[in-house]
Amino acid sequence: MGQGSEQGTRRVRRRSRAVLAVLTAAVLGLTGCDAVGGDASPGPSASASKRTRPAPVWDTSPASVAAVGDSITRGFDACTVLSDCPEVSWATGSSAEVDSLAVRLLGQAEAAGRSWNYAVTGSRMEDLPGQMTRAAARRPHLVAVMVGANDACRATTSAMTPVADFRDRFEEAMATLRAKLPKAQVYVASIPDLKRLWSEGRTNPLGKQVWKLGLCPSMLGDADATDAAATQRRNTVRDRVRAYNDVLRDVCAKDRRCRTDGGAVHAFRFGTDQLSRWDWFHPSVSGQARLAEIAYRAVTAEKP
User: Fold this and answer.
1) Region for 77 from its dihedrals, namely left if φ exceeds 0, alpha if ψ lies in -120 to 50, beta otherwise
2) Prediction pTM value
């Protein structure tokens, strides 16, 4: 065989090896795509991601409700003079006129057995840890809170609960609940505008007579006085309520399972129809219904 023939043979062999290498790389490449989830089939990571997607932190339809707080949550003076009327409570009442938060969330039948009211007329923030302990024993999915008016409604403005103490007790109450129920949800209503209530109620002579029995003297005392001293006193109470509401918002914001009404109760313009016909200060049945509406909107909102 001649030299030219040998060189031709070598060129054919080199081309054959090159073609084989290209084919091998192509086969390996296709196999590699399938192995990591190419076009042939979806990879396991997609379905795994769906399976492990975390549930929402806030449940807009909790299965049970416990209420804590003061006279407003007990329905004080809504039905009869100087008496509690828990059946019209905005939080857990059974009255069809109010359509309470518990009834709206659970239905009338379920609310009867799965809602509890541990509020106590006259309570202040310092009483909330104890109420939280009693409420936690029921293991509620949602705890509704409205407290703070009595911390401002004192004999004098100097007797009002200091803001720092108010914060300490609220943090203690939340810690008390979390120690027993780390996943319970908490709805916190803001404190009503007490000066607004004075402004509306002072138009009624009967209401002012009841006020003289000692109802919120820091705000309602000398109801008709509008001199500089009386105005300053009422403004001091108004400012303290605002500071308390700031505390409620700030402490709640640190807990991922707590939400407030965004100041809606404080901003609500209670008219005479929403005030007790006996003391013209506490919510009437109509006023309780408005509080229930505000609470329900806050609890069922997809985002706070």
Assistant:
1) left
2) 0.82
